Amino acid sequence: MEDMRTGRGGDIASYQHVWVAKMKLKLKKHWTTTEAELQRFNTAFHQDTDKLNEFKIVLNKRFQALQDLLREKVTTMGYNWKWIKEALTSTCQEVLDRKKCHHKEEISIKTMENIQERKWESMGHTLCKSSNCSEASPNLES
After folding, report:
1. What are the start-end ranges of the H helices in the chain?
2. Are 52 and 46 contacting, i.e. CB atoms less than 8 angstroms apart?
3. Highest taxon of the source (predicted)?
4. Three-state secondary-structure class, residue 92
5. At CA 91, angle to CA 87 and CA 95, rounded to 5?
6. Cα 86 to Cα 16, 25, 80, 91, 123, distances in angstroms
7. Under the phi-then-psi rule, with left for phi > 0, alpha for psi from -120 to 50, and beta for the rest, what region is 75?
């Protein structure tokens, strides 16, 4: 036991974080989001009567063409569902557009003001602790 040496360095946990981060980056690089992506459309346009009427007209045209196509062929339910889904998504993309996501700011303006105020207070206290407190204190009050 006396011959054992210990060296300073990272432990297993710190190396594990690096390894996990590298693996996430590798997985993210090969991730295909186009197939699994959930498409959200701006449904607020349905409140506008002009957009709603346009959506109905385009959808009716697509389904009319789909019905004509399905009458000619004998198809399976999965094949029909694929065509219906394609008609709906393409119509929504054409008429409604995609929904824009607005992320909330993580730190609000009020919180930023509080942080700035605390910084100034801490700076004032550190100035008073130093040797030139008599010179710094009149400047802080103004």
Report:
1. 12-29, 33-36, 49-72, 77-95, 109-129, 133-141
2. yes
3. Eukaryota
4. helix
5. 180
6. 44, 32, 10, 8, 62
7. beta
Structure tokens at 112: 């930023």
Residue 24 contacts residue 16 (beta carbons within 8 Å):
no
Contact present, 91 and 59 (Cβ < 8 Å): yes
36-66 pLDDT, tens digit per residue, is 566 777 777 777 788 888 888 888 888 887 7
Is 142 within 8 Å of 136 (Cβ atoms)? no
Q: Which of 140, 137, 36, 43 is nearest to 98 (CA)?
A: 43
Residue tagged 């029909």 (tokens): 80
Q: Under 8 Å CB-to-CB from 51, ≥6 apart: which residues?
A: 45, 95, 96
Pair 58, 91: CB distance under 8 Å:
yes
> What confidence score (pLDDT) does residue 13 get?
55
